[in-house]
Amino acid sequence: MRLHLTILALAMMPAGCETAGSEPRGATIHWRFAIEEPVGSVQHAYAERFRELIEQRSDGAIRVTVYPYGTLGTSDQITELVDMNVVQFAMASPGHLGKLIPEVQVFLLHFLFSDDEQFNNQLLNDDPDLSRVFQELYAARNLQLLSIWSEGWQVWTTKTPVAAPSDFRGMKFRVMTSPLLLAAYNAYGASATPLPYSEVYSALQLNMIEGQENPVFAIQEMSFHEVTDYMIFPYHAPFITTTVTNREFFESLPPEQSRLIEEVADELNEYILQVQQTYNRERLQMIRDKRPDLTIVEGLSDEQRMQFRSASQPVYEQFVEIAGGRARDVLDLVQQKVAAHDFANAGDLPQP
Fold it and tell me: What pLDDT score does 350 carry?
């Protein structure tokens, strides 16, 4: 009830509180930024740095309020609030945004990206071909895409060891509510189980599910390591999110404000890569200290990864069928870019 009242109160605020164009001269402009994770997360670090830079560079003329996970509802509800221009900025992850923009689910495919995180970061934001395609896809849904970025490699936490697809057979494994993620883990033999993020801990504790995946920092902050026995790094997929704003709002801004947003978003691309790597490294040590009995497998063998890679390939075609539209072109584009990089840097790629 409190959540609905909060959203209603925001929606009833005067338009001048949400948009710059209707502000009286000299009045402070207020923007809202909703994220999909709690305080202390990588998304929170991004949003707080965004707030800090916007406020500094506007000399305090613009104020940004950050709303952590749960404050304004689910990820789907946050996206709706952006569409209504009740919230001006938000994180929108492919796991839920795929219902609105099916092609964005390409970022959920396993073994699609390079093992080179630096290259993946550059591909997601600096490649003009990929940028053009996704800008068009988001624009069709009244969203202005500001950036695409990784929060770190997805890691499995399970109650039993996993070293081959056969180890997933029958395992109740939590995924986000995405048909493609259901297909990905069903392809390994798991019983993929969609659950809201906030319910994962209790579901693991009560043995309603037997495993889940998230970046290390999220595993630590949500205490998933407390209710599982194994932590496995397959380096199969980065957890990717996108930063968006309402397109009509963005296009209505004075040029200096829209340029400021773009400059800050561009600057944060390299910043957040360093932040997530630091967070994930430090949080892994915190997990080790808290659970010395937890079995941590930092990387599978080439042979083991190949088994998972082979099992994941049919899901690529399912992506094309599920997403439709420009899905084939998007998939081919990402594969070509990654293959060209990996071939050119075969001897220099970091070993996961």
Answer: 63
